[in-house]
């Protein structure tokens, strides 16, 4: 206890933030971030964004002998490519180096390194488009077994994205790729099977609708995966069926080359099959999944599955309307899209709002968003490949989003104790006093 006149010892303060864990006697001290640095809070990106000037150093680190150095360089390159639009000079003149280095790292035997390489290849293809076709060729020629499920899923995602963005002759390249994805979906399980089905759906959007719908076997092929034990596989198969059905009905609407089956439903001409029979087959498998119950799945899984499959069932039901009884021209009958045929997804970019209302655009949107993760909005705003695939127009016509404030700017302008906040408070106080005086005594005379 201190006596009167004694001075208490001064407590030394530190610029470090103290974090108390469960043990009250143990204190963990973590340094405070510098105010002018930018850290990422998005999912999957928990590091700071590297500078574009460090690209050469990161490329050099990919040739290091230490695996940890190469892995860290790959992490940094992925974060940089996700959150920045890499200029064309990054690829021009270095394409051979990129392909050689990434192909070598993908076959060194380390699964973690190979997974990162696959993710980086997908991002590069989605950034540069057709000039990066060499990456697609390298992935297409890779037939090595993928025993690691995560590696197999990363390979399927990279192959699908590279084929979609870099394929120059889809009419000759896509059909063999669809067969390959179908074979991978049969061989693999879990996340790898889901990635294969999603890859099939993304690549299938490159085909003309008539070429796609004239193969009804795909409807029966994906129906088998609706009974898979994995929730993500069931949802991917359901979305693939919705894509096929939407493509079938839109082809009928756009071409007018139709014939009506025994129940009066429109079907593509050319011996494709009965629409009513195919519709009944799909609804027989889809409706139980939209009303799932029981104790074999968690509440979260049942809720997610019901949400997805109700939209898919609505697609099949609404886009199968019979013609009215009175005869009218075919084009007038089916050119109007049915409401509610696809879950609407609204994308906000500054003051611009875009809505995707068909399964083809929705499939592409989900694939790009999965590849770019936290940097998706940056690429939706200024990436020519992404905007071209989603019909958003050239980047220079886009409305630029508002630049977010940094941590330092927030403290300087938004903190209650900042000079700017105090000045605003004083100004508003004087304005209130002036308005009150004018109300009480009338306007001041000049």
From TrEMBL:
<dbReference type="Pfam" id="PF05004">
    <property type="entry name" value="IFRD"/>
</dbReference>
<feature type="region of interest" description="Disordered">
    <location>
        <begin position="1"/>
        <end position="50"/>
    </location>
</feature>
<feature type="compositionally biased region" description="Acidic residues">
    <location>
        <begin position="31"/>
        <end position="46"/>
    </location>
</feature>
<feature type="compositionally biased region" description="Basic residues">
    <location>
        <begin position="10"/>
        <end position="21"/>
    </location>
</feature>
<feature type="domain" description="Interferon-related developmental regulator N-terminal">
    <location>
        <begin position="45"/>
        <end position="317"/>
    </location>
</feature>
<dbReference type="InterPro" id="IPR016024">
    <property type="entry name" value="ARM-type_fold"/>
</dbReference>
<feature type="compositionally biased region" description="Basic and acidic residues">
    <location>
        <begin position="421"/>
        <end position="434"/>
    </location>
</feature>
<protein>
    <recommendedName>
        <fullName>Interferon-related developmental regulator N-terminal domain-containing protein</fullName>
    </recommendedName>
</protein>
<comment type="similarity">
    <text>Belongs to the IFRD family.</text>
</comment>
<dbReference type="InterPro" id="IPR007701">
    <property type="entry name" value="Interferon-rel_develop_reg_N"/>
</dbReference>
<feature type="region of interest" description="Disordered">
    <location>
        <begin position="414"/>
        <end position="446"/>
    </location>
</feature>
<dbReference type="InterPro" id="IPR011989">
    <property type="entry name" value="ARM-like"/>
</dbReference>
<dbReference type="InterPro" id="IPR039777">
    <property type="entry name" value="IFRD"/>
</dbReference>
